[in-house]
Amino acid sequence: MTSIVLPAYRAKQQVGQVRVVHSEWTKLRSLPSTIWCLLTTVVLVVGVGLAYATLRVARPPADPSAFDATAISLAGVQLAQFAIGVLGVLFVTGEYATGSIRVSLAAVPRRLPLLWGKAIAFALSTAVVCVPAVLAAFVAGQSILSGQHLDAGLGDPGVLRAVLGSALFLTAVGLLGLGLGALIRNTAGGISALFGLMFAPQLVLGLLPNSVSDSSYRYLPTPAGAAVSQIHQDPLALTPWTGFGLFCLYTAIFLGLAAWRLRRSDV
């Protein structure tokens, strides 16, 4: 039997950012946790919005002028941030738990493109899921509210910004989880840090005098990020895009710390 020997592939190979992003996308879509977390996100966004809209139709408000129909449809976003944030943590810590991070770093020796590739692949993937989810929740919720003439349209002032802003907020929460996971490199620690950062500061402020809590509340991560998804603005909160920009700054800080640790550590 004659064996066939193929010539060695001698073309120069470069580890470019586009190839790293494609590699990280392959990892992300092959993880079982990705399917479950994204499915949970969609179910919470759409399901909670429908349930809350149905409840409010059964109990119409005394003052319809103060009724925020958009917030009713998007009520599930506040719960969905748990699922999307956990996915961000798992996307990084899973590799550290199995030791496969060593293979990834061997393939991308410059290291930082690996972190940026994870962030880009994650952000694009979650945005593709979250944008249709919030749109579906809004349309379905408004169709229920229209029975009592309480519905709003995408063309109403601030509505489109609130709907798309909710998807952006969820994506940013996921990236925050990714940054914390890359910084702490432990699943339990990363998830605990995410929940602590998102919710503990409000609890601490509740124990302080009103003069202190009222002036500081707007700069906390969750109130700042959630401002972009609100129609009727909280007088204690920042303006929508300013608040979201501040939340993105928090996310960038933790991604930057993760990049610093990745450059300085052995693994």
Describe this structure in words.
The protein is 72% helix and 0% strand. Helix 2 (32-58) runs parallel beside helix 6. It is mainly α. The chain contains eleven helices and no strands. It has one domain.
Task: Provide a brief overview of the structure.
With 267 residues, this protein is mostly helical. The chain is 72% helix and 0% strand. It has one domain.
Stretches with pLDDT under 50, minimum 5 residues: none
How would you classify the helix and strand content by structural class?
mainly alpha
- Determine the fraction of residues in helical runs and give it as a percent range: over 70%
Number of helices: 11
**For the terminal residues, how far apart are their CA atoms?**
47 Å
Report the strand count: 0
From the alpha carbons, calculate the radius of gyration and give it in angstroms. 22 Å
Q: What proportion of the residues form beta strands (DSSP E)? A: under 5%
Shape: globular
Primary descriptors:
267 residues; mainly alpha
What's the topology here?
Elements: H1 17-30, H2 32-58, H3 69-73, H4 77-98, H5 101-107, H6 112-145, H7 159-184, H8 187-205, H9 210-216, H10 221-226, H11 240-264
Helix pairs in contact: 1-6, 2-4, 2-6, 4-6, 4-7, 4-8, 6-7, 7-8, 7-11
